[in-house]
TrEMBL record:
Residues 329-437 are annotated as: Disordered. Residues 416-437 have a biased composition (Basic residues). It holds the Pfam family p450. InterPro entries: Cyt_P450, Cyt_P450_E_grp-I, Cyt_P450_sf. This is Cytochrome P450 71A1. Belongs to the cytochrome P450 family. Keywords: Heme, Iron, Membrane, Metal-binding, Oxidoreductase, Transmembrane, Transmembrane helix. It comes from Zea mays. The keyword Transmembrane helix applies. One of its GO terms (molecular function) is monooxygenase activity. It comes from the Eukaryota.
Amino acid sequence: MELPAPSSASFFLVAVVAGATLFLVTVLRLRARSTRKYRLPPGPRPWPVIGNLNLIGPLPHHSVHELSKRYGPLMSLRFGSFPVVVASSIDTARLILKTHDLAFIDRPQTAAGRYTTYNCAGLFYQPYGAYWRQARRLCQAELFSARRLMSLEHVRSDEVRAMLSDLRAAASAPAGGHDAVTLREHLYMVNLSVVSRMLLGKKYVVEGSSSPATPEEFRWLIDEHFFLNGVLNVADMIPWLSPLDPQGYVKRMKRSAKMLDRFLEHVVDEHNERRRREGEDFVAMDMMDVLLELADDPSQLEVPITRDNVKGFTLSSAKHKSRLMMEWSSCTPGPDGRRHRHLGGDCGVGHVRAPEEPRGPRQGHRGAGPCRRPQPSCGRGGHPKPPVPRRRREGDLAPAPSRAAPDSAAVSGGRVRGRLRHPGGRARLRQRLGHRP
């Protein structure tokens, strides 16, 4: 029995399969060879598609901190398709942010930057280039300079006084007692009011303001904007998931961006109307006026600023006064921290005059007195104590023992040369072991 002769279609199919297999093997070998020549920092082994995203929880900074305890201050992760280097100590952060800053200066192009900041028109998501350098100069010289912030000092003072009045009214009970007050809500409101007045010229968080959004909608819009700009979007790490939007964040970004654009358009129109009404007598009262003046006179700038850039700058400036900063500043330290912080710092504070912001280098968290050089404390006999040895860095040897370093034979179990330690941290004189205080 004779076998049928193979057709040309069979030869073509075999050739295509063999060619595709050879091409795939070649690509995989070249990719493996290119990845083997780099020595990456230690880190967990990534999975094929998701990388190390399975190790990141709802609070990414907490998850990364726990991983740094295991893999060291410098570790490598893989978020989907992108390699990530994490620095968890001062020295490694200095290497990334100062020594090799040009290698890490570009920002990732995320969905939040495209949809919530007018296609990365602000400062945070803008890639490094002429526009980014110009934006940084504007922030340092025009928007957030010392002269500009000092001219808006009355805004901060007025809002702080208004907050104190609201706290007094909220804490006063009808029967003459006192009620508990949620300080976080009041701090958030004063933060929002200060940002609104400094950037936009007036408060848009109170009833009766000419705003297209109610105060409740405005607060929800700001909270939604901050949340979507700080959330971990899986579609940014795995690009082929972007059309699917598995977490629904892109849909929320588009909705909040549309509402925020309608609000900012109303604010820009109000400022332009005031500029046309005042004419030559116009004086910039807030940061929105400064940006609009720069946009109308492009000869002063290297890269022209458009209307969307003005709105993107406004959003970038508002992020400097987020709720997390106010919550951190409202944290109250312990009794020892309060005592050391307020040593001599009550000058000008009392029942007569209100506290003011520091006016010069002599005023700070230690008061308005003259700055004195700290003198070394003296021990017994009038001889100065040796300085405390510096903290060790990664890989450094242990410091040599100094005159103040006690030896292991003298210090054991809370006893110093036969004397018991005082509860405050010092041993009493002539207090022998076993003697009751």
